[in-house]
Amino acid sequence: MLELGKIQELTVVKKVDFGVYLAEQEKDQEKVLLPARQVPEGIGIGDRISVFLYRDSKDRLISTTARPRLQLGEVAELTVAQTGKFGAFLDWGLEKDLFLPFKEQTKKVREGESFPAALYVDKSGRLCATMKIYHYLRTDSPYQKDDRVRGYLYEISRQFGAFVAVDGTYSALIPPREMYGQLQAGDRIEARVAKVLEDGKLDLSLREKAYVQIQADAQKVLDVIDSFDGALPFTDKAAPEVIRREMQMSKNEFKRAVGSLLKAGKIEITQSAIRRL
Predict the structure, then answer these.
(1) Residue 22: pLDDT above 90?
(2) Rounded distance, CA 173 to CA 162, Å?
(3) In whole angstroms, how large is the CA radius of gyration of the chain?
(4) β-pairing, 188-196 with 170-174?
(5) Residues 96 and 56: beta-carbon distance below 8 Å
(6) Above pLDDT 90, what percent of the chain?
(7) DSSP assignment of 59-73, as one string?
(8) Using an 8 Å Cβ cutoff, are 1 and 11 in contact?
(9) pLDDT recorded at residue 178
(10) Burial status of residue 30 (CB atoms within 10 A of its CB: 0-12, 13-18, 19 or more)
(11) pLDDT per residue over 130-176, tens digit each?
């Protein structure tokens, strides 16, 4: 069976002026053309050749000896070659660029931008790309708890958190409780592995472990106090929403940082403010 979107080893069953026809076996009726410019020198009837199957500009099944950057069901980082009315076209190593429909984009893409994408067959039997790569990512990463990793943030859900492709390959999530700052789809992030789940997926944190993070948080509190001319107009008794908005910390993290600074004699707390000493 000829498989669209995959590299296969096929047999040369017929030679014509414009190329050769390939099939799984010599007697098979299902054949695919390998254009003349792609045919290796000296190839003959009965020889086996490794090719990739896709559709040409007229939607005809065709083969090539060129190697695309990904096969069906795989994920690879691709670059936008151009954008159009119905989506974008990605450079994936073949003459015909790969179509990325608007409905498969998790953010608006721009020419020259690169990101992980997966390959699938649409309802019309054509190969297309998708940025919705959750089901294509691997769950056998080599990473362990507290390892530092890098990844591409490809989608954000208010319910579940920020979905990340670690190394563009492995499935990971930043849970809502660990989301700090203005995270957006398309961000390249560095994070700490907070947990390796039973199914192999990774939970990530943008912050260090508490005993390490507290020093950075304390310095951040001092910097914010300085930005308010030496007096922060709220204390550690402020609402969690105010603290997260102004400090990009949870209330507990803020309280720990303030406690550290208070103990070190660097601040004083009044009824309505925190002042730098």
Answers:
(1) yes
(2) 6
(3) 27
(4) unpaired
(5) yes
(6) 57
(7) S-EEEESS--S--TT
(8) no
(9) 81
(10) exposed
(11) 999 999 999 999 999 989 999 999 999 888 999 999 999 999 999 98
d(CA 16, CA 3): 23
220 and 262 both lie in a single domain: yes
Residue 217: both structure tokens together: 């948080």
* CATH classification of the domain holding 116: 2.40.50.140
Rounded-to-integer distance, Cα 205 and Cα 193, Å: 6
Each residue's pLDDT tens digit, 207-225: 766 556 677 788 888 888 8
Total tally of structural domains belonging to the chain: 4
Is 69 inside any structural domain? no
Give the type of residue at 202.
L
The predicted-structure confidence for 34-77, as pLDDT tens digits, reads as follows 999 989 988 889 999 999 999 987 888 999 999 999 999 899 99
- Name the DSSP class of 243: H
The alpha carbon torsion through 41, 43, 49, 50 (nearest 10 deg) reads 10
Cβ atoms of 216 and 260 within 8 Å: the answer is: no
Residues contacting residue 133 through CB under 8 Å, at least 6 positions apart? 75, 116, 117, 118, 154, 165
Whether 258 maps to a domain, the answer reads yes
Range of the domain at 228: 210-276
pLDDT tens, position by position, 240-249: 888 888 888 7
Single-letter residue type at 165: A
Closest CA to 243 of 258, 232, 254, 227: 254
Task: List the 231-232 sheet strands across, edge first.
Answer: 231-232, 274-276, 267-269
In the chain, which ranges are continuous DSSP H helix? 210-227, 240-247, 251-263
CA distance 164 to 10: 37
Please determine, for residue 253, whether its predicted confidence score (pLDDT) is greater than 60. Answer: yes
Q: Which residue reads 């017929």 in tokens?
A: 14
